[in-house]
Amino acid sequence: MAQTQDQIKAKYQKVLDTIQQVNGSLKNVNMEGEKLYVRAEVANDQLKNQIWNTIKQVDASYSDLHADIVINPALKAPAAAAATATAGSSIGGDKRTYKVKPGDTLSKIAQEFYGKSNEYEKIFQANRDQLSDPDHINAGMELVIPS
Length: 147
Fold this sequence. Notes:
Blueprint: H1 5-11, H2 13-21, E1 25-32, E2 35-42, H3 45-58, E3 65-71, H4 79-90, E4 95-99, H5 106-114, H6 120-126, E5 142-146
Parallel strand pairs: 2-3
Antiparallel strand pairs: 1-2, 4-5
Helix pairs in contact: 2-3, 5-6
């Protein structure tokens, strides 16, 4: 049974949200046959990979999706992504940072980076210097995201 555009779009909403979160430019979202076609631009390879990781988290086969994600250096990467790139290179490449947004939880952040919300403990342990309770994080905090 074929899915409707609304069903497929709802399935991949997390991908569309991620494109917006990384300051990407969503150029096109429509149906092509039985597939959802998404065309977007992002600032760099790291952000493009983040989008593809999100796609694979939603559906590893992504057989009902055609994604055309291109790099446009004229777009600005979000501050957290820029901090990630500098932190990764200055700390040896195995640590990233993430700026907490309103409504975030460690579980939600773990889901985004690791694909499993129950991996929040890794993030909590890496940030014990600023966190005393995994249930209490504040928007604006800069968290280390271990590999």
